[in-house]
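Record 1 of the preview.
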Amino acid sequence: MNEVVENEIRATVDHQLNTLTDIIRIVGETRSDVKVIDRKVDRVEQKIDQQSADISELKVFAEEQKVFNAEQKAFNAEQKAINAENSRRFDRMEGMLTQIINKLTGE
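->
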């Protein structure tokens, strides 16, 4: 009877060791999976940080472009006013030259 009890005890101990080994393997695999997930999360966070930096840079560029466009619009308006003034001056000069030529030619 002692032998039967010893065999049952050994079988129970073996089963418990196998169960413990399985648990350790599962925990090890889980830890490995967690490490992989952590690395992936780190990469995603780095990408998000880079995209945030890119977005900030684009916002600055957009603001600079707005300022440039406003300055360009003001310059164009000023140029239009200068062109209109020059056109009036040329018209006046043309009229004066016509009068001078008419006086010289006696017309």
